[in-house]
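Record type: monomer structure entry
Structure origin: computed from sequence
Chain ID: A
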Amino acid sequence: MNDHAAAGFRPDRAESPVEASQDVEEPPELPKVPKIPEPPAAPDVKRHHWIVRFTHWAAAILLAGMVTSGLQIYGAYTRFGERGGPYYPNPFQGRTFPETVRLGGWLAGGINWHFLLMWPLFGVGLLYVGYLLASGEWRKLAFRPRDVGSALEMQKYYLRLRKDHPPQGKHNALQKLAYSGVILLAGLSILTGVAIYKPVQLAWLTGLFGGFQAARYWHFWAVWLFVAFAVVHVALVFIADPASLRAMLTGRYRGRFTSDEP
């Protein structure tokens, strides 16, 4: 036995890495960056009654058939005025529309389709107007004198003359103006259509529009106003508020304009 062992000497053991690390001064903690709260999700609200959704899509399909069959009827006489003139101003005078946008194939076929679709469309319109009156929804659609200022501000926004979107309820003022105008336009289309349909039995009504050719003229241009409304309407849905398309399909709305006020 050597001297170290006899003396009870024990060699120093090596420091473990854990003990060594305890002697090293830890760096100070960096200040925590506060988390930016995520914006709350848009609420999912009930927007359109099933009657509104049904009449909306039914009217779109029926109107497409009425327009295309009407263009077929127009092709039989592409002027507005008695033969030999004078004629009402018409950029389409003497022209027929492409066959792809005409329904019926010939005059009688166009008339048959027009009359076939006329009554369902009339019924859909009555159902829609009846719902508006019974439910009070008409208050949210009707354009009133107080909406003129809001309509001008909304127009500035669409023309990029105003950065922020004007406050609105369920519909903005321009939408109210358009929807109110379409209802009046529908009334004009019905009256002029009836005047053309029964020019002898309802001679007073036909005369009110200036005669048979004049009634045809106003009826024809009502169609193009409907087409213009549809084009602008669809464009603004995708540009300004795509969530409204889902609302017209499901009845539920989750978008920027959740207010249900008039």
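Annotation 1: DSSP finds ten helices and two strands in the chain.
Annotation 2: The mean pLDDT is 86.
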